[in-house]
Structure formats: C-alpha cells, structure tokens
Specification:
The structure holds two protein chains of two kinds.
Chain A: H1 6-27, H2 31-54, H3 62-81, H4 86-89, H5 101-130, H6 139-166, H7 170-184, H8 196-202, H9 206-218, H10 229-256
Chain B: E1 2-13, E2 16-28, E3 34-38, H1 44-51, E4 59-64, E5 72-73, H2 84-94, H3 99-113, H4 128-140, E6 146-150, H5 158-171, E7 176-180, H6 184-190, E8 193-198, E9 201-205, H7 208-221
Parallel strand pairs in B: 3-7, 3-8, 5-6, 6-7
Antiparallel strand pairs in B: 1-2, 1-4, 8-9
Helix pairs in contact in B: 2-3, 3-4
Classes of the chains: A mainly alpha, B alpha/beta.
Amino acid sequence: MKKRSAIKIFFSVVYALLMREITTRFGSQKLGYLWAIIEPMAMIVIFSIIHSKMNTKVSYDMSVFLATSFVSYNLFKDIVLRNLETFSANKGLFVYKQVKPFDAIISRMILEFVLQCFVVIVLLIIGYYVGVDMKVKDLLSVLLAVLWFVLFGFGLAVLFAVLSYFFENFAKIARLIFLPMFFISGLFFSADSLPPQIREILLLNPVFQFEEMIHGFYFYALDDRYVNYIYLIFWTLIPMFLGLWLYKKTERKIIMT
Amino acid sequence: MIVLDNVTKFFKVKEEKKYILKNVNLVIPEFVNLGILGRNGAGKSTFLRMLGGIDFPNGGKIYSDKSFSWPMGLAGGFQGSMTGRQNVKFVCRVFNKSEKEIEEIVEFVKNFSEIGEYFDMPIKTYSSGMKSRVSFGLSLAFDFDYLLIDETLSVGDAKFKEKSKKALAEKINKSNILMVSHSMPILRDMCDAGIVLYDGKLWYYDDINDAIKMYNDINKAA
C-alpha cells in the first residue's frame, strides 16, 4: 500500500466523514435539509410579526436583520452543540487509525457551514422575489465577521467536545448555557436600542458582540461602536488553545477507550 | 520488519497496574506470518491493536515502515447506525479510493459476505458473525503489508470458514498476517512464527509449533 502524506490522509478522512454525515443525518429523514430552511424562515416570519405589532420604529428592515441573526447564530450554535457528542458518536470509526477524533469536528463544521450557505442562498432568492431591501454596507467585513464567529465556535466546539467526553454531565451543562443565548444575544434587537445599564451587562456576552459586529457591517443604519475587539480576541483564543491543548493531551485516550 | 523498543503496556485494575508488556524489546522479521497466543486477558487483542496503531504503549515505542490493516475481530469496528454498504464506502474513502473502485469493492464485499439484504441494514442489526464477514471481506479488498486478524476465522459456519481460509491463503501470497487465535490447527496452518504473551512477558518463536507447545505448557501449569 502506498504511503500518503498526513495532510492527504486528513483530507480523505474528512471527505469520508462528510459523505457519511450527509447520508446519515439527511438520508434517513429527508426532512433534514428542508428543516434547516424552514426553521429560520418560520422564526423570521414570527418575529417580524411580533415586531410589527410592537410598533417600534427601526431604521433597517427587520426581516433582514432577523435573517442575518438567525443564520449566523444557528451556524455558531450548531458548530458548538452538534459537536458535543461527536467523539462517542464516531467511536466505531476510530478502529481505522487514519480517523482521528478531531477530523470528526472538522467535518461537522464544514457540513454546518455548507448547510447555512445553502440557507442564505434560499433566503436571498425569497428576499429578492418578495422585494426586500437587502443591501449590504460592507460585504467583505460581514464575511470576515462571520468567519471570526465560526472560529470562535470552532474553539468552543473542540473544548466542549473534549470536556463532554470525559465529564458525563458537561453536555447537559453546555446545552443549558445555550438556552438563554437565543434571547440575550441581540438576535432581534441591537445594542443601540437598549438602555445603557442593561446594554453594558448584555455586552459581556461575546455572542451578542459578534451579532453586533455582523449587523454593524451589514446595515447602513448600524455600526460596530459597541464591539470590543480585544475582548473578542480573548474569547476566541483562550477556549481555542485550551481546547486544542486538552485535545492533544487526550487524543490517544479518546481513541483507545 | 516491526520493532518494539522497550515497550510497556499496562491496564489499571482497581488502582493496581496489570502488565501486558513490561519493557519488551523485540524485532519481528519481515515476511513472517505470526500467530499470537496467550490465555484470556493476557493482552493479545491489545497487542494487535497496538500494532494497528489504535492503541498505544504506556512506555517505549513500536515502529514499522509497513502498512497494517485495522484489527479484524468480533468487536466489529463499524459504526452501528450506518448500513454495511455505507461503512464499506466510508472505509474506501478513508483510503482514498475513486468512485469507480468504491463501486467494485462494494460489490465484492457484498458478494463475499453473503449477508444478502442485511447489507443495506444498519450494522447494529447484525449478528457478530455477520459483522466479521463484512469486516473480513472488506479487508481483502485492500493491499496491506500486514493483516491483523483477531479470531475472525473461528466464526461463521463451516462453509464460510472454508471460504475465508481459502481467500486468506491467497492473500498471504502478497501480504503477511498477524493473527490472534485459540485454534491451534488454524495457527499451524497459517502461521510460521509465534508469540506467546504471559504475565507481562513475551516469547518469540521462529517456529509456531514451539509457541504452541509453550502455550500448552502454560495451560497445563495453571
């Protein structure tokens, strides 16, 4: 058998995992793909209606605001939460020494990313036909902000995956942490619209700041004045290095058990 | 050639270290079919897994420039929620096979394993015999320098046993085997050299018959 370089093996394995993931997650229940689209759409419609009933004036299109929120938040959340049990779920595959637990995280991340790209395309098409103003202030910065958000998710995903593998209850705790996130992360309000005292407290939540960043670059009426970039760099680097370090230390144990 | 350099492996059983290998140095020469003997719990499977690169010594190093299959055993090595077909495809992709090659391998494994409709059922519905049929058939589709076999030949009905023995005999022309088995006739048939694992130590014999003799002596003494 020919020797392959480590990076080639890595690519083959990630591809194999990805194909596997696509067939198991979406193959068994064809609704899988559809649900990924329906869920954010339903959210957008519901919260748009609530918003219009509340009669608060905003200087941007609320449905577009909600769309950018839900897509980016779902991407982040799914990268972290869907990786929680990824090691034990893929255990059977570690008999092939080429398959490392880390590869499973990468392949899930790619899957989530591709899935949300797909959602964005569908939302864009719908928005175009409905005639919503979807103009972007600074597209490149929006994309960079989303990529940074993904990187933040990746670090947390690695850290949480390792912790939940060794501590049974950690997965439950992680899910618990994410429960209020939906309401406190600026998915349907901007920092600017909050009273200063509440704003200060909520801005401690890095997810809120990431949403602020994305919205700030997307909408002409908003900006990134409430984003503390140094704060977010810390939030990105610390979990990532801690996660990767713990992973490196425990990789063999994960494969062996 | 496989080199074990001062290899130590133990398991912690109730805070006590139970040694499988203790500071073992060994060079397994090239082109040798090796049988691994030992009583239950002596660490035969762990030894095989270490050679296969999915278990790791607590101390020392194992190295080789050869390629090894995954350990084929009763434990399976498949993802239960995936069907036999999906598992086969997965392994093919891990080894970077083209879509055309994958199709051929899938066909081959399907025919070889003779599990019929079960091939498209989740692996968790398989009996252990069915699992090892697929695992064994799959490994035949690749060209490894060493096939790692953990008791696989002792399962299945007489007909399948005969078939897999024949397939393996053919395979041995190109590959070598490292085999764990409790069946002395199979070991005599397939292997040239033998290893006996006992009490944290390892004995290597150039002749499998000597290894079998020692194994029998251990059993008598116990």
